[in-house]
Design brief:
The chain is α/β, with parallel strands linked by helices. The protein has 11 helices and 16 strands. Strands 1, 2, 3, 4, 5, 14, 15 and 16 form an 8-stranded mixed sheet that branches. Strands 6-7-8-9-10-11-12-13 form an 8-stranded mixed sheet. The chain is globular. The model has no long low-confidence stretch (mean pLDDT 97).
Length: 387
């Protein structure tokens, strides 16, 4: 048993504590508050007034898929020879000993969603994982978090260069629809086979992966920057009654009123700390999270690592706060909002009893770039302690 005392606690659960305490046992948070009795046998860590918050969460990156300081040998995020690869799984490509995991962990990022890139219309499944460990199987929270799909420039560029479809936005949408229809038919045949095994469809690895989307077991994780691509993604999700998480959402602020009308699983904004490297990024701005939030939408902020190095996630949130986002909401965008976007808010994202003891302590406010992470705990294990 361990207790952290003398902390300025931001729980991300609508209650903060000055001179607060957190009690931890068996990797879980047991109690949090200002004054409560702790067992005398508990190990004590003095935060010295430091800013204590939940471990930060990046809801969309590619860490371990494109390895640090490597070219082709460490590039395992896009199987860019077939625009439809739903059967690919990020868990089979991630290198957990990539240096970037350690850098992220020491900066206070304890959980990430990582997976395929956006070369393909359907790219494969993302995983949600902790950033500490040497074996991927021990780090996984959810091995199949979402199905990556992509709209806009990337699939067009990749397959136009190969003289293949899609080379237009029409084809991207048509290819996605075609395979969702196939998956829907596949699921219907499986359901009929529950009463008559002779009606069971022949096993299809791609359709089996997409069946999880049709059954609403996982959402589509939809890469879309431009406003029209965002709305196409929403349109298709409604046609097939599937859940969708909007990723990047660069021009989301231009259609915030329309997005407010939709029952979206999540809006994950970024990478914004980057240049306008292509046409669909011409309206890139750190005002996007603020404008979406002010329209009544819950926003998570992402790095898209390695586009932005993962350890700079809190800087992205700080810049969003500078451009008008409520400071506490900006903190939520890299903690509890990100956890909700990934459907893991029952485990991480806030300092509450029963949740994983993933805890970060700064020596000051995390949005002051002069301050540093002094303490990191993940699953109750102290990883870094410079208090």
């Amino acid at each position: 048993m361990l207790i952290i005392k003398n902390a300025t606690i931001h729980t991300m659960a609508n209650e903060n504590f000055q001179n607060g305490m957190v009690l931890i046992e068996d990797g879980k948070i047991i109690s949090v508050g200002s004054n409560f009795e702790a067992p005398k046998t508990a190990q004590v860590i003095d935060a010295h007034g430091g800013f204590l918050m939940p471990g930060m969460i990046d809801a969309h990156c590619h860490v371990g898929m494109w390895e640090n300081a490597m070219g082709f040998e460490g590039s395992d995020g896009n199987e860019a020879v077939d625009p439809v690869t739903p059967h690919l799984r990020a868990i089979d490509a991630i290198n957990p000993v990539d240096k970037c995991f350690r850098e992220a962990l020491e900066a206070g990022i304890t959980t990430v969603a990582t997976g395929p890139g956006s070369a393909n219309v359907i790219g494969g499944t993302f995983v949600t994982m902790k950033t500490h460990g040497r074996r991927i199987d021990d780090m996984i929270i959810d091995p199949c978090t979402a199905m990556k799909v992509a709209f806009g420039e990337n699939p067009k560029r990749v397959y136009n260069s190969q003289k293949k479809s899609p080379s237009t936005r029409m084809a991207t949408a048509a290819i996605l629809r075609e395979h969702l229809i196939k998956a829907k038919n596949y699921v219907e045949k499986q359901e009929k086979a529950l009463e008559n095994k002779e009606k069971a469809p022949e096993y299809d690895m791609k359709l089996e992966a997409l069946a999880k989307v049709i059954r609403r077991e996982i959402p589509l994780k939809a890469h879309a920057h431009r406003a029209d691509d965002i709305l196409t993604a929403v349109r298709i999700s409604k046609e097939f009654n599937v859940e969708i998480s909007l990723e990047h959402c660069t021009e989301g602020h231009l259609i915030a009123d329309y997005l407010k009308e939709e029952n979206l699983k999540a809006i994950i904004v970024g990478p914004t700390l980057s240049d306008r490297s292509k046409i669909e990024l011409q309206n890139l701005t750190f005002e996007t999270p603020s404008l979406l939030n002010k329209a009544g939408l819950k926003v998570a902020i992402m790095t898209d690592h390695p586009v932005i190095p993962l350890q700079y996630l809190p800087i992205c949130a700080a810049l969003a706060a500078r451009e008008g986002m409520d400071e506490e909401e900006a903190l939520r965008s890299i903690t509890i909002n990100a956890a909700k976007a990934l459907s893991i808010d029952n485990k991480v994202g806030s300092i509450e009893p029963g949740k994983n003891a993933d805890i970060v302590i700064y020596n000051g406010h995390p949005f002051d770039l002069r301050n540093k992470v002094k303490f990191v705990m993940i699953n109750g294990q102290v990883i870094k302690n410079e208090l």
